[in-house]
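Follow-up to my post from last week.
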Amino acid sequence: MNNVFVYCELEGHTVTEVSQELLTKGRKLANTLGVKLEAVAAGEGIKGKVEQQILPYGVDVLHLFDAKGLSPYTSKPHTAILVNLFKKEKPQICLMGADVVGRDLGPRVSSALKSGLTADCTALEIGPHEDKKTGKTYEQLLYQIRPAFGGNIVATIVNPDNRPQMATVRSGVMKAEVLDPAYKGEVIVEKVEDYVPQTEYVTRVIERHVQASKNNLKGAPIIVSGGYGVGSKEGFQLLYDLAKVLHAEVGASRAAVDAGFCDHDLQIGQTGVTVRPKVYIACGISGAIQHVAGMKESGIIVSINPDENAPINQIADYVINGTVEEVVPKMIKYYKQNSK
Amino acid sequence: MNIVVLAKQVPDTRNVGPDAMTPEGTVNRSALPAIFNPEDLNALEQALRLKEQNPGTTVTVLTMGPDRAAEVVKEAMYRGADGGYLLTDRAFAGADTLATSYALSTAIRHFAPYVDLIIGGRQAIDGDTAQVGPQVAEKLGLNQITYTEEILSCDGKTIRVVRHIDGGVETVETELPCVLTVNGSAAACRPRNAKRVMAYKKAEVPHLTCADVEADLNQCGLAGSPTKVKHVENIVFKAKESKQLTGSDEDINGLIQELLASHTIG
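User reply:
Got it. Predicted complex:
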């Protein structure tokens, strides 16, 4: 009762990175609250294959649901599992990834349980709260912190009275750290039919193509990233040229993706990938808070922008007042000259 | 088929000017242009295509908001929708996604008890939560397909859809009735039709109130919202000590040499 739960998303028999990041965060939250960390994994043929990918993060109880029809993920059976499990276990917090699965599942579960859900959180903390209207005080609520309203504000959201307090978090926002490879957690193999009526298997997956990400933004030591200021698809080629000589990956802001300059896989920020490279070269990026949320922990930030008041310049180590067309070819030229 | 399209009028957060925030740090909605939420237009297009393919289909738009939100219903009618409703009441004010989905689901029960398909955009640009579609589906006890890219077929009983998933695509099939949410990368919405603009320019969009749809006041608006905003911070970055450079050859050469010397790059 009252524990912290993490829904572990599986791709086949592999626990996704975001789930391991959330288990790490969940362990910390559980420690602060003095409660247990519990995990839920549902799929087909997963028994004996996923436990060691989950327990080492400090999971005290793993609820395992292994049955035909649970993989690949479809909305209704996984919803039934969480809703019925949560009615029984009454968690105080539930975390899941803010990806396609978590954003499909989270709202359904919150709607069924009438609990609050905050999407795409960039930080989670525990703290007190006072309801100014009723004067009621709360000792330890989950602060769900996220940029909102087009990134012009950062809001701290709480769910004072409804449980579980639910939040989704994007991949890469939290860090995954194994607590103890030999951590002793209990594995409960649940009877799936007690949770999922046969009538819930209503979506048939006809075909499925998943390929590993084409880019390696999350692990890249150097990222050359372009924004709306790059101006065009052709302009992005310059960034690829620079990335090639620096052995870097190319990223983008949402504005560049929305403008069709590049593929949406490249998007860095709150609703894209979160990165922590050694060097982040921001080309024509103004620096909306959603973008900054996804790159602010970069080691060295170089901003190339003709607008000296661009918000990103505030967090940059080097501000180059100039256009992308002017500066990037010079960077390539002088890198080639100096690195030999 | 009986199709309901969920549409929202949103402030255009992509074009935020300097007066978008009040000095107190709250959002100055009146300073932002109100637009048809972009992904709801993609949703409308999917509905209109099904209407063309399945004679006898009606497309009804539902929106919730203040009086001026009725504009999105009319805009949808100019583009091909048959009609729509504005769900509006003081009691709905301050609703989070859960209270919003409750209100929308009571309205759908009220005017479309035999709905076949409910289609909305994946998410709205003012919140980016993508929660209302699935929450409506759950409240109505319907199945859902989120992240829809294309409807491959729909015969009024079964629907087959291509959806985007992380790192790929998936083709799924399910029975109607169900809820679909549509991505911004799906087919763009057709433009207004001049004849329809003339025909519906003066049309009145019917209003539905909390009482009309027999909604439980405890589940509406602020009262029905489990999430509370504890604190809002206006964005001011903490300024770093940054080196200011120009685009001159000298400055760029110096920067590259500095980064190479510190083994930051290279």
